[in-house]
């Protein structure tokens, strides 16, 4: 292996062979990619469809083991030509609590996949010492042969900051400061730190990563300033349609592209990744009916989490939800209908293609297909097999 790796090639190959054994996913319908996926900045292309990845966020799996779903889906999409697997960082909540550390999950995925990009979606960087983040993700970069990408976020739930109470009020500033340090550490630049005896040390983190540059996304949803900042600083963007719809998304993508152009960056090379709830069924009507129970339960939980997140407007949200009373179910059904009609990848293959073409026309480069919102593993894999026919057509 290259000088950037730290494991002997024979040991790494043997470890991968042992870890790859496990329940086999359905045979992919798309032709496997012939070479490791390049870093996204080098992979921009002209196409009617965005790239397709999968993202895990809730850990809801229809009663089965969330890690069983994660591993089998990851084996499948690696062979089927998908672009990336995203895993989140979530703390102290039952929904999503299966994913407290994307670096640990990324290390596991590195050992059972060969081509697909391994992405954090996202690392809440103000919760952590940046030295540890650099060490952990360089390790995953070695295990994967240079397939690591990171989306970074400031964190949003006040309760999460029991891990770093002093960081909550200033989290956006801390994120930007830590992001710059992380990228410097990745390149091999030393940072100064004092030990308990008062001595100052020049710290270089190890292992050294395989990739000379760390591909970075900024996680953002509605904030136009965040989109503008990402463009001005050469960052990719990971987003979701939370409290806004496709027309507002198009506006934010335009802000992002314009910001890149203003600072002399190619506006087309920044990657916009969009998370969408995904289920592709045999026909559109049955797909919607199939996901309704799982999706409405998921959305109800998600709305509650946002209402209690500790943000400035959280009390108003909590009061609004409380005042809904018996109308709460009707409200969640309304949210579900909006999601299905404009903000999801739920339907049949033809509808999925039309939706993907629509988001590509808005400027979206990749769809991160959210798959763990409550359906059993076999149905998730069947859905991805149908979606993989579109991957095959593009390759």
From TrEMBL:
Residues 61-366 form the Luciferase-like domain. Pfam families: Bac_luciferase (PF00296). Keywords: Monooxygenase, Oxidoreductase. Residues 23-36 have a biased composition (Low complexity). It comes from the Bacteria. The lineage of its organism: Bacteria, Bacillati, Actinomycetota, Actinomycetes, Kitasatosporales. Gene3D superfamilies: Luciferase-like domain (3.20.20.30). InterPro entries: Bact_Lucif_Oxidored (IPR050766), Biosynth_lucif-like_mOase_dom (IPR024011), Luciferase-like_dom (IPR011251), Luciferase-like_sf (IPR036661). Residues 21-46 are annotated as: Disordered. SUPFAM superfamilies: Bacterial luciferase-like (SSF51679). This is LLM class flavin-dependent oxidoreductase.
